[in-house]
Amino acid sequence: MSARFTAIAEIDCARSAQLRGDDRQPLPDEVLCSPEPLVLRGLVAHWPLVRAGRQSARAADAYLRRFYRDATVLASHRPPGSDGRIFYNDDLSGLNFHSQMVRFDQVLDALAAHLDAPAPPTLYVGSTTIDTCLPGLRAENDLNLGARDPLASLWIGNRTRVPAHYDLPDNLACVAAGRRRFTLFPPEQLKNLYVGPLDFTPAGQSVSMVDLHQPDLERYPLFAEALAQARSAELEAGDALFIPSMWWHHVEGLEPFNLLINYWWRQSPAWMDTPYNALLLGLMTMRDLPPAQRAAWREIFRHYVFDSDGSEAAHLPPAARGPLAPLDETGARMLRAQLLNRLNR
């Protein structure tokens, strides 16, 4: 399927002293700040977990169990013979999978029991903090990201499909066992992806409603342009993919046992709120204004936010610039308090 898409640019880490993937030196900023996605072949090939995963699914299972300490995870399940797509039900009144908290070793047991099944149930665990679930695993399997303080998570399951969605943080996704196919769309393809509800989502982020395996171009005609801009790559155990902030990505597990470890971090200070809050306020306060007023507010946002270079308040004395002054943690707390006071009127 991926042959029809443009390939994601690749770097062979075996040929780069800066991309050995161990903790001797941090990964370079030209990778971790790239505006474009990058496949990093062999970045984590030295991990003991990857070596076990390359040996077999059962070897990876045994390696993971060394670190298990009675942790529970949110596991999703679909019945045998389903297509693995983590999505909505037919009328969007609910989801097409069932989720419950279970012990992590029970997930491993279920995956092991169905390794050779021709039509296994869909099993999926996403975005689980490694240090909580498998303490000590990162001591043997980790990356040096320099001054960044990433959130490290694991994702495990069998042949699953997660619809195209975006994440606010930058993302370094490392395949530790099995194979995964990533299909990415640039942020400007939003209008062509036919995004689902903002407030009711399969896993926290809004997703494209189009089935990438069987796109209905009569119902979703603009998706043809998104397909023309799509980029894809298949990753094996040891490979990694850098996904820049806000890039849409569709993720598929291609084996009966797939394990991914990813690192998330933001290029902005921790005290900055998510821009998603501004979107919700924009929907509440601006979307339904008359066209002329929306145009006026578009210009205000362009001037103060999207085209800001610091000069918009240069004509004011520094003490009088208020929210227009350079923002720091104290200023952010003050703005948040003002906003909450206004919303609670």
TrEMBL record:
Any Pfam family hit: Cupin_8
SUPFAM superfamilies, sorted: Clavaminate synthase-like
Residue ranges constituting the JmjC domain according to the UniProt record: 123-280
UniProt protein name: Cupin-like domain-containing protein
